[in-house]
Fold this sequence. Notes:
The structure holds three protein chains of three kinds. By secondary structure, chain A is mainly α. Chain A contains 13 helices and two strands, in the order H-H-H-E-E-H-H-H-H-H-H-H-H-H-H. Chain A has helices at residues 11-20, 25-56, 58-64, 84-115, 118-133, 136-163, 178-203, 206-214, 219-230, 232-248, 251-256, 274-281, 288-320, and strands at 74-75, 80-81. Chain A starts with 10 loop residues before the first helix and ends in a 9-residue tail after the last helix. Chain C is α/β, with parallel strands linked by helices. Chain C has helices at residues 2-19, 37-50, 63-71, 86-91, 123-131, 140-143, 166-178, 180-185, 203-213, 223-228, 248-259, 296-310, 327-336; strands at residues 26-32, 54-59, 77-80, 96-111, 120-121, 157-161, 198-201, 217-222, 235-237, 243-244, 282-290. Chains in contact: A-B, A-C, B-C. Chains A and B meet through helix 1, helix 2, helix 4, helix 5 and helix 6 of A and helix 1, helix 3, helix 4, helix 5 and helix 6 of B.
Amino acid sequence: MATTPKAATPTEFIATPRSFLRRWTGADEIAHLITLIAAAMLLLIAALLVYQLWIHSAESRARFGWSFFVTKTWDPVAGDFGALPFIYGTLVTSAVALLIAVPLGVGAAIFLAELAPPKLSSSLTFVSDLLAAVPSVIYGLLGVFLLVPLMRTNIQPALKKSLGFLPLFKGPAYGVGFLTAGIVLAIMIVPFVLSVSREVLLAVPRDQREAALALGATKWESTWKVVVPAGRIGIFGSVFLALARALGETMAVTMVIGNNPKIAASLFTPGYSIAAVLANEFSEATGNLYLSALIELGLVLFLLTFVLNGLARLLILITTARGSGVLPT
Amino acid sequence: MSVRLAWRKSLNVFMLSLTGLCALLTVSALFFILGYLIWNGGKDLSWSFFTRLPAPVGEVGGGMANAILGSLKLLLLAALFGVPIGLLGGVYLAEFGGRTVPFLVRYTADLMNGVPSIVMGIFAYALLVMPMHHFSTLAGGIALGIMVIPTVLRNTESFLRDVPRARREGSFALGANKWRMVATVVLPAASRGILTGVLLALARVAGETAPLLFTAFGNRYWSPGWMQPTSSLPVIIYTYATGPYEDWHRQAWAAGLVLLGLVLITNILVRAFLTRGTAYERS
Amino acid sequence: MRIVKVLTVLAVLLAVATFATAAGQILLNAAGATFPYPIYSKWFDLYHTSHSNVQINYQSIGSGGGIRQLLDKTVDFGASDGPMNDEQLKQASVPILHFPTVLGAAVPSYNVPGVQVDLNFTPEALSGIFLGKVTKWNDPAITSANPGVKLPGDDIVVVHRSDGSGTTYIWTDYLSKISPEWQQKAGKATSVKWPVDGLGGKGNEGVSALIQQTPGSLGYVELIYAIQNHMPYGKVKNSSGIFVKADLASVSTAAAAAAKYIPDDFRVSITNPEGKAAYPIASFTWLLIPSKFSDPAKRDVVKDFLKWALTDGQQYVEGLSYAKLPKEVVAKELKAIAQIQ
């Protein structure tokens, strides 16, 4: 990994040659302009994206205002729309996913960064990167035909038996629902937690752990009490990044969440997420208000992931102190 | 040995093995997914799967030839639209940028990278499908192309920056001006890394379903030209997997295997061969 | 610059591959109801076989989607099992014509472990289940209509549509007619706010899949989906107090009564009709055709296809368990085709 970006920005050494290559600078300017236009295209697209979401959700925003976020009803007949069940479903499934994925991902990252020999570490990281490349719809496919039946016949009844006293594990076992969607999401985001956490841990200076070991700490103690706290902020960053992923994940969730706008404590309940309702209802919403409400949901999702991503990158930047790092996508 | 020390030592062993187990679990997920797909989809990969059109609903047989070609066309459009913008934008950031604009572009690219794909679908629908009054390959390709830009752009920038300063200066010393230096020295030096980024970005959008639902839509037949709706592998997997017919399920597995195979092979080849000897590997 | 070369070669190849098929082709895009999807896809395939230059690409995204995409003018024509309402018709830039194509039935299909027989459903039981008042399979509302059948005490898992659906329209239209409480709480539409917790499936395809996968479930699907997927479905008590199973005869009977006084715009509901043999949850399904086409070639294809579907096409209908249109309706429609310009 490159440690720091090249210190000199190219503008510095452009000045000298330019003086004796004056007749060519016209070409340079054109090249500058062309590349600038390309870069500006990205800004333009981003601005257009926000603009489109904003104007197309105008009707819904005007009609419902802030109450959109606290209303539970989703009634296309009466034209009464509230985002709460979808926001709830999105947050609950993401929370379940994080609860599973963070310990798993950070644990694996510790192993890869601290214990595994470099060869093994890099090949395992390679596999984990491949896992991150598996398309969402494939996870959905396995979710529908493998995980859902397994949840219904084995996992949910077992949870009900052992932990049924908790409100989290009550109600009929449908197979689909918040818990199933959360598990699928967890598998999907583990690679992100893993690869970012690993890099963060690797960036912790060697002498810190050596100091701890010299003081008589075991390997685990030096890792857990020195290295992990040192990379804490970056690990948080990886968690936010994974969270942003989970919030916006569409296909796999749509296929296993149950598609039912409902708020309930039990994780067995079939629910709905913002991304799933968009996938299901966007192309068939009749009536402008209905469509506008859906686009406002899209706007909400966009803003949520926008904020989280910004935060995540800031945190990772702080720990790895590496501006040009290519983060996993 | 005191009890305390024994406790610390066994905790050490226990926790360290636990982290190993975490790593094992994560990594084995990939092999499990791949194995399960081969198990379920492998037997249904036949010649007709690759060469025939879908059969009428509820009838057995048919293939996905149109979806495979549709996916290829979408990817081609995504590359044609997204790669030049990403590439040139990356050159701008690495070679020409000043202070404020590059910061803005870089930040926007990172954030655009995280925009949920379903939101991209809505955006492309509002921007292209509604005004043109047509679902089309073009709209789907551009939706995917937009998703390619941030990755290619950031990746290009980072590889260009890694080109050793000595090589640039050598070129300057020979009297080249800036754009020639970039075109003849810097870009070729970074080309492997850039190509890696491009291919990985394309492999990623190849599996995207959500942006295509309202743009490329679907088609039971071949989709001639670029202005007609088209079938695509990810969308057909989604439709078939959530449908009731046995035969659809079989074909969804087979299509899933093809899609995953393509994505993984691209990833493996690119990561194994192209990254070798580039700045990425060296550092 | 190898990338550029590779891309160029690919582009040429693809262009050749794609434009080669394009000469002289007429392509129509249509979207909408999943309810008649099996027969439509059969029709469009047969029509393509006999008119090889015509391809009609039909995407079954749901009736709500058919209406919406037609209004957005992203498709050439739509399809729905619930007629468009006046407000929707007003939004259209050119008047939209409704053409009934076949008749179908929405059936209560279920997956109750150990129960293989056809269950009987009273209107009260169905409305009770969908209002969330009847929650167990052994509720008296169900058992009283099914003497001799041993029903488990399991929860009823209601499966409904997650997308805008004409099948939902038919189902809720029926429930609204038989239950004032339903009429008031939910009403009839292509998507409603369900008073009961349940699972949402996308399309008749998705609901069928969910019913098959979920023990204890009950949902509504178009008859052909239940038959093709070997799913059990129940008899429903009609307005004469007789339990009737959905089949060609009982659906046709329901239509025959309506055929005599079908309105000029063909928008008519035939749920809960009179007649001892009539199945109560049946409906026409419509193609939604704009009255004006800017492209005369497309217009001619649509007119020709409609004529074919209403006459020769009807022979394939019963093979897929839909009921043929009554003769009076066909005659009236053939005249209405002239309105398409």
